[in-house]
Amino acid sequence: AIQMTQSPSSLSASVGDTVTITCRASQGIRNDLGWYQQKPGKAPKVLIYGVSSLQSGVPSRFSGSGSGTEFTLTISSLQPEDCATYYCLQDYNYPRTFGQGTKVELK
Amino acid sequence: QLQLQESGPGLVKPSGTLSLTCGVSGSPISGSHWWTWVRQPPGKGLEWIGEIYHSGGTNYSPSLQSRITMSVDKSNNQFSLKLTSVTAADTAVYYCARDGERGGNSVLDYWGQGILVSVSS
Q1: Cα distance from B63 to chain A (closest Cα, Å)?
Q2: Alpha helices in chain B (DSSP H)
Q3: CA gap A27, A1 in Å, rounded
Q4: Inter-chain touch B59–A94, beta carbons under 8 Å
């Protein structure tokens, strides 16, 4: 199975900051990567699919980039409602695998 | 608006079988989508369990494959998960989700609210 490694595991940032989360795949996965946001007690919500395509209704401050084995989720101008745990998910092959998560908190 | 709702026992005995159903409303389950199960142990990350197509085609996680069965019930617009020989390690919130697929990419765009299943005697 492809291993997805996220970094950092947690971070603190201030409102208005730009936040970057990285996801590294153990092998090349083309552009088959999505990002999910999960708030406590809630189901995950898709933010981005295909590395950089924004899901309908998701604020444009979220963006994704990368290719091959290294991918990035960027939140420009962090808002209080962005405090959550973020997961990457590869859909290059089976089994699908999630990163271990990055918890974003307000400083 | 598509909605998914998990149902089933919240407590299963060790060595028993975990059985969950995901009811789908707002869209026929026989559409062109895969239907997915994901779980999350308390305080931990997400784990992909597997998926099923309305025709009965499945893809399972190899780590669970020997214990999993998924099925579709078109008449009741629902799909199900059975996990046998459960242990405490199977205690988790179980989510069902739809893979909305865009341009060849998987997009888990609709989720149930999740159901906590505890394995304990």
Answers
A1: 9
A2: none
A3: 10
A4: yes
The CA-CA-CA angle for residues A74, A28, A19, to 5°, reads 10
Q: What angle do CA A70, A76, A77 make, to 5 degrees?
A: 155
Q: What token pair was written down for B111?
A: 């989720």
pLDDT in tens, A28-83: 999 999 999 999 999 999 999 999 999 999 999 999 999 999 999 999 999 999 99
Beta-strand pair B115-119/B11-12: parallel
Q: Using a CB-CB distance cutoff of 8 angstroms, which residues of chain B are in contact with residue A43?
A: 95, 97, 111-114
| Enclosing H/E stretch for B112 | none
Measuring CA to CA, which residue among A63, A39, A35 is closest to residue A47?
Answer: A35
- CB of B21 within 8 A of CB of B82? no
How many angstroms separate the CA atoms of A96 and B36, rounded?
A: 11
pLDDT band, residue B72 (cuts 50/70/90): very high
- Residues on chain A touching B57 (C-beta within 8 angstroms): none
Contact list, B108 vs chain A (CB under 8 Å)? 34, 36, 44, 46, 89
C-alpha to C-alpha distance for B71 and B90, rounded to whole angstroms:
20
CA distance B98 to B4: 8
Residue whose structure tokens are 């997009």: B107
Task: Name the β-bridge partners of B51.
Answer: B36, B59
